[in-house]
Write a structure and sequence with these properties.
By secondary structure, the chain is of the alpha/beta class. The protein has a single domain, classed as Rossmann fold. 43% of the residues lie in helices and 21% in strands. It is built from 8 helices and 11 strands. The strands form 3 sheets. A 5-stranded parallel beta sheet has the order 4-9-3-10-11, sandwiched between helices. A 4-stranded mixed beta sheet has the order 6-5-8-7. Strand 1 and strand 2 form a beta hairpin. Helix 1 packs across helix 7. The longest helix has 16 residues. The protein binds guanosine-5'-diphosphate and adenosine-5'-diphosphate.
């Protein structure tokens, strides 16, 4: 699915799909924004959703907000790389921008749930790196959902009662980060991305690079 781009050291490599999942409120939106701001070569996948826009959200940036009929038409036309129903709403990843970014040699960041992560893994296991974010405690999770001040008490109750179900999928992920202090959690997530970018298997330019080094040594 992916074609090569160039790493910071100039060696061609396959693009990767970097997935963050967590129970709602554990901090994946915060960490995603920090990654996009601070990691060159990483592009956010903007999902389509039928859920209502929250105050402060921007259509086309945080999500593409669509009605159910539009979402169903996207599914039917096979325009979504993966999709799932979460909290009674539909969420899905438009395929076009992901393919375009990977073809242009960029990595793609996904804020999607465990169902979407499983679907991506089925399609491109070698190119998917998945990270599950855990809150330090249930009390912290609830505090964060309230501090975000964007959902009604009823919606927050629903999200808290779903948190345990969400968390039960932690063992399906490659890495687990506990989001105590946000700067530390960010440093950990950033380290994962940096290391995964150096993985030998995705650095398809290494054969040529080493050959050229050997040529220089012999010459
Ligand atoms: N499978 C899938 N899940 C998504 C997608 N976009 C968002 N989600 C997940 O849907 C859940 C609810 O997202 P949202 O309503 O924004 O609330 P949040 O949990 O506070 O970020 C989160 O677990 C997201 O990771 C998508 O395109 N596909
Ligand atoms: N390490 C942290 N410590 C305290 N508050 C945090 C931390 N990480 C995120 N938050 C806050 O918690 C709330 C939920 O975070 P958010 O990133 O929206 O979570 P998610 O996308 O997983 O639902 C936000 O108000 C955010 O500013």
């Amino acid at each position: 699915m992916t074609t090569g781009g160039h790493g910071t050291d100039g060696v061609e490599r396959r693009g990767l799909m970097f997935v963050l999942s967590s129970p709602s409120g554990a901090g994946k939106t915060t960490l995603s924004r920090m990654l996009i701001d601070r990691m060159p070569g990483l592009k956010m996948s903007v999902s389509a959703t039928t859920r209502a826009m929250r105050p402060g959200e921007v259509n086309g940036k945080d999500y593409t907000f669509v009605d159910k009929a539009t979402f169903d038409a996207m599914v039917k036309a096979d325009e979504l790389l993966e999709w799932a129903t979460v909290f009674d709403n539909s969420y899905g990843t438009p395929r076009g921008p992901v393919d375009a970014a990977l073809s242009a040699g960029q990595d793609v960041l996904f804020d999607i749930d465990w169902q979407g992560t499983q679907q991506l893994k089925q399609k491109a296991r070698a190119d998917v790196v998945s990270v599950f974010i855990l809150p330090p405690s249930a009390a912290d999770l609830e505090k964060r959902l309230h501090s975000r001040a964007q959902d009604s008490d009823e919606v927050i109750r629903k999200r808290m009662s779903r948190a345990s179900d969400e968390m039960s999928h932690w063992a399906e992920y490659d890495y687990i980060v506990i989001n105590h202090a946000v700067d530390e959690a960010f440093a950990e997530v950033q380290s994962i991305l940096k290391a995964e970018r150096l993985k030998r298997e995705r650095r398809i330019g290494l054969v040529g690079f080493v050959r050229s080094l050997q040529g220089q040594l012999q010459g």
